[in-house]
Predict the structure of Cadherin domain-containing protein.
Amino acid sequence: QLTMDPAQDFHGDVTITVTVTDDGGLSDTTDFVLNVDPVNDAPVIIGQVELETIEETSITIVFSDLLVEDVDNDYPEGFTLTVLDSGDFSDFYSVGIDSVSIIPGLDFNGTLVVPVYVNDGEEDYSQSDIFDLEIAVTNLNDSPILGFLSNQVTNEDTAISIILFATDVDNDSTDLIFSGSSDNENVSVSLEGNQLTMTPDLNFTGSANITAEVTDGQFTDSGTFLLTVVPINDPPELGAIGPQVTPEDTDLILILSATDVDNTELYFEASSDTSGVITTVEGDLLTLSPAINFNGIANITVTVSDLFYTSTETFVLTVIPVNDPPNIDLPESFTFAEDSTLVEDFTDYIGDIDEDDLTLTVSGNENITISIDSFEVTFRSAENWNGVETLTFTVNDHQGRDLASDDIDIIVLPVNDQPVLVDIDPQETDEDNSLTITLSAIDPDEGDEVTFGAVSDTDAVGVLVIDNQLTMTPDLNFNGIVTITVTVTDNGNLSDETSFLLTVTPVNDPPTITLPASFTFAEDGSLIDDFTQYINDVDENELILTVSGNENITISIDVYEVTFEAVGDWYGEETLTFMVNDSEGRDIAFDDVLVIVTPVNDMPELVEIGPQETDEDISLTITLPAEDVDNSELIFSAESDNESVIVSLSGDQLTMLPEQNYNGFVNITVTVSDGFLTDFETFELSVNAVNDAPILYEIGAQLTDEDIPLEIILSAVDVDEDLLIFEATPFGPDVSTVIN
């Protein structure tokens, strides 16, 4: 960037010479003419005289209020004055070309800033910069304004508070003082800050005019609103009742009383906190009815209402207890089985509402014995006896009242006896052979029919029972120890069971081998196959795997993992025989498999090329060497990772051509193929840099005004992107040049 700065007030023509040089010492030069034209200088407002006015009072601004300098003209001759709107004055108007009047905005005080400028009347550069003229505006106090007051309503005997609001342009709302008054002596007024509270006298209803006032200490504002006090109903008062007493099972009637200052009709209600006492109200008569046999404490709540308000009292009613006889209510019968016992809790069958200590006794029993522990009764029958007896149970509270008794039938049911199996000793059979044994059982109940059943603890041994014959059949090749459980059941559905062990003795089985039709792998390769999937021995004996019949194929066997490999470069077919032996004296198992080795093409190989080098703008051609053991016809290809270097091939001749002025490093990838397989190498080509001279763009004639510097951008190109240094020399002392 070239900056040309004419001397102060200079104008005319100057010749400028510009030179550009790169860091290799090469350069280029050009000349151009700079023309500096004369221009008018704008006036400058350098200050003002002190100005002041009163709030909301107009003031006139004249030329003499401003201090102005103009090197080309005499101020204020031929000048005009302009005032701009700043928003802080409400009106302004021109008095003449040399004065303007303004009025400060409503309530504005302090320093009023007025933007102004002057114009010297010339065609160009005639207007000064905008100057902020300051006018001191003296404050005048304004009256506060009280906010809107709406009419208010409150209930009898209830105070009401409202918040008073006021505005004052000269004072903060916290600096204002509020006051209030009432035109009715039955309503008092008080203030705390700006909160106005109105309190009606007790039982007063009607209206009052309330006046509120606000002052800033100098000026005041006030307002009046209507307060209406609405009458409300007064609650009735219930006459005192106090604690009451009545005997158990005896009603109590009370007369209720109440007063109401409003003389309205009253209504009574009552409730009890327990279901043991029922309350009934008819007019002012309250009837308290204890439930049958209830005694104790009940809280009775009585309420009187005028249909708007209520009055309530809760009193204690004591119901005095009276002794009652006990009671007993048994079910029709109890039933239990022969030779067993029955325990029953009689608590649910006997009672005494007085909760006296009761004694339980029994009579009428012959074949059934009774044990009584408090209210827990145990029934036992004579051995093997069954039938029905009617027993009488009696309870006594020892309070001199009648005893309570109830009869009940005790039924003892006959019981069937279970059959008993005769123990079965452990049994044994050989693998793959079934075994049948005879089952027997004893039943004390003569004439009962018995049925036998059996289960095995494993699915590997099946069981079948026909009458009393149990047949056990092991699965093919199964051996081991099995638990057999036998059951016997009579026609009363009672049963017995026993378990015994069946041992199935193992018998050795020959191994097996089943191979696929063939295995295939590639020339110079190998194949690993797990023969576990092809061989088997149901006895899980340790097997030995061997092979025969191989000539060009070598076999390695590691337990059951078989590795196939062929002689180098050989391919073809061989039939091999694999054998497994469990070494237990049974037949050895054989199977044949065809092993196929397929031919494979060999990959060509590039001979190492290594890094290459050439100068900028110079092509390079090299010969590509490669070898192929199959003597196939070879095809070469090449590519560059940078478009700035173009590669081409002619047979095995590789030519690398850098673009004009390009230098740097490029990765060249060469590939050789026999039509099926490929080999490749990537090498680095270094293109060495050669320095080129920079070229400076032409600069035409330039024009600027007097006293105005001129900046232009200097441009040059260098294909090497070297750091360029610009120089500029003027012909003559009237223009200075700076290169940035």
